Amino acid sequence: MKIIKRIVLGFVITLALIGIGFVVWAETPLGPAPEALAALQSGSNVTVTTDDFITFRPSNLQPETSFIFYPGGRVDYRSYAVPLHAIAEQGYLVVLVPVKLNMAFFDINAANPVFEKYPEIQHWAVGGHSLGGVASALFAKDHPQVEGIVFWASYPADDSLKNSGLKMLSIYGTNDMAGMGKFDDTKSLLTADAQYVVIEGGNHAQFGDYGPQPGDNEAAISRADQQAQVVKVTSEFLKELGK
Hints:
Elements: H1 2-26, H2 34-38, E1 46-50, E2 54-58, E3 65-70, H3 81-88, E4 93-96, H4 112-117, E5 123-129, H5 131-141, E6 146-152, E7 167-173, H6 180-185, E8 195-199, H7 223-239
Parallel strand pairs: 3-4, 3-5, 5-6, 6-7, 7-8
Antiparallel strand pairs: 1-2, 2-4
């Protein structure tokens, strides 16, 4: 019995150490770069507020459409401030939600409080980068008020939304760490009329501002160029909601 107890105790201690190690790893995310922190400041066209989440609100109009964004795995959520600030400048309420342990799949319903805070919004889209895109699709599955999903270097976890009627936009770069084949293979998980935008020379990390990502390929275009393309097509997609 003593041997069994020692084995069990050793197993429990090992699991505890693994758990502690994971938490420490998850709580030391990539980013944000100085450019991202600068984009958290309000400007003449966008008012930025930070409370339970970060909100980018256009200053000169009352937006009817909102885009809720989930960050990528083990990336500080503030790292996406630059492109999201720019999308808000196009007339959309953009909300950047933090997630538990910097892992969106631990916080699928992180967007719930946003609906409660902004009841005046008429059209809702969710989306995210990498793991955040996966989480946003899982959220949309159980929230019928969502009309569209935007995947930045991402795709759904399964085909449960394939016949949902949701509008979908998938943006990814030719130099993404996942490889072009992965995005081609997962197109069957999206709706038949999903839109695809491939950024020539874009990679995985340049969707945000958090520095190089381990395992990613080097981009053949600048971060500013890649993000400008992302902002343009995402804004155009949001414009089509409700039509």
